[in-house]
Amino acid sequence: MIFRFDAFELDTRTLELRRDGTVLAVEPQVFALLAFLVENNDRVVSKDDLLDAIWQGRIVSDAAIDSRMRSARLAIGDDGRAQRQLRTIRGRGFRFVGTVIAEPSPEPEPDRPALHAVQHVAAPAEEGGTSPAPPPVADGRPSIAVLPFAAIGGESRFGNISMALPHDLIAALSRLHWLFVISRSSSFQFQGAHGGGGPRLDGLEAARRLGVRYCLCGAVEIAGNRIEVIAELLDTTRGGIIWADRYAGSIDEVYELRHRIAGNVVAAMELRIPALEAERAALKMPESLDAWGAYHLGLRHMYRFNSHDNRRALDYFAQAVLADPAFSRAYAGLSFAHFQNAFVHFSADAATERVLARAAAEKAMEIDPLDPFANYTMGRADWLDGDLDGAIGWLQRCVDLNPNHAQAVYSGALVDTMAGRHAEVGPRIELARALSPYDPLRYAMLVTRSLALLPSGAFDDATAWAERAAREPNAHVLIHLIAAAVNELSGRPAEARGWMASARHRNPGFSQADFFLSLPYRDPAMRRMFSQVFDRLGMP
């Protein structure tokens, strides 16, 4: 059905709102709200009616309904003050009061399916032709295609590396549940696309035909016993390179090199693409964000590690859950942010925050038990509750699901340190740092290296690592307390008191009891050592 009012057409078959023939960008839930009000323009629609029709009976706040109503008004050039089309009837609900003309939608032509019908990716066009791009991913996830790499020189027995490496990358990236990865059978149809114009131009064209936001392409050069690989990440909407790296090694170590490249590239995508998605989402009106846009903005604030941004992160993750109640990663984000509230006492009620962190992690696992981020937050929930053995199980499961999850690698090392298992912590921290050299939790990786050295009495080395951690951006009160403690242990009282003053500035009320709730050491000797040091430094 098509409903006409003023200069607008609302088409319930194609799910389009048009003004003077131009399709307007409207968030699906806002479109559904507007369509319901227009279809029922002969009566007042109550909030209960809206909950049943738009939210399928789910409980949502009045603020959420009001937010969607503001977006609906904005879409049709109305506002809450004028209320020319959408009128609020105090105490009763809402009514569409504009003049509406309804008429049946024209039937789609046989060879042109409706917009909501399933469409298949078209094969690359013949030379000189064009190929229509497929529709965007329906759930809003960022999407990527990995193209065959260009092969430059090399012996025939190694010539297939340009195909094998992209295959490795597709398999590794597919472990990231938040990223939609085009299958090999589609992206490898563009084999040879890198010839002539070079990977940048042809990679963008291939990616646009595949309908993805990002494209990973590159080149493999073999000369004698040396192999070099260049990888580039392209943004198909902006048309530029947004990340690139070069890898080199001996041809005798080609299989080890493939493994290292796959790990490094996946870790880079974990940071680069969410940051770009957050930039895209920040350009939208808050009311028009879809679930994935809200989620990526939540990540941006979550990794700033201060109380204000953590509250913003919680708001965005809650908005993502409201937009998509089956969004596992949004619940995992809620769990991460509640963990932060409890861990560094951004909230005065740390006990409640621990409960909320666990509840959100369990919900994420209920929705998608194979999502690495959900498993990671379950491990952190057990950590907060002092169940270190349970925590290491979840964190290891996260690594099993995604071997390149640097934060789970570091967290597992820290949990083992608190449980008294110090062996091999150093290599695991180095692995985490290699996987994600610019990780927002880099400070935590460095301080874990420091903590692992304490049982052996290597206080000078521990001090060097702790001070590196404390000087990292976003290092919080616990990191500064550890820097103070290890300086005191290494016989540097002036430096110890300086770091203690910095910790008190960040959170004056943080106590020894709070420290051991956040870092639940199992070893009585380690707990006693920290308590004695903090007593000397005047920490309550």
Span between termini: 70 Å
Percent of residues in helices = 40-55%
Choose one word for the global shape.
flat
SS element count, helices:
21
Q: Provide the gyration radius in Å.
A: 27 Å
Structural class designation: alpha+beta
Report the β-strand fraction as a percent range: 5-15%
Overall pLDDT score: 83
Total beta-strand segments: 13
Oligomer: single chain
Q: Summarize the biggest pleated sheet.
A: 6 strands, mixed
> Which residue ranges are poorly predicted, with pLDDT under 50 across at least 5 consecutive positions?
108-135, 193-201
Question: Could you explain the architecture of this structure?
Answer:
The structure is a single chain. With 540 residues, the chain is of the alpha+beta class. The chain has 21 helices and 13 strands. The strands form three sheets. Strands 8, 9, 10, 11, 12 and 13 form a six-stranded mixed β-sheet that branches. Strands 4-3-2-1-7 form a five-stranded antiparallel β-sheet, covered by helices on one side. The longest helix is centred in the middle third of the chain and has 29 residues, at 254-282. The protein starts with a strand and ends with a helix.
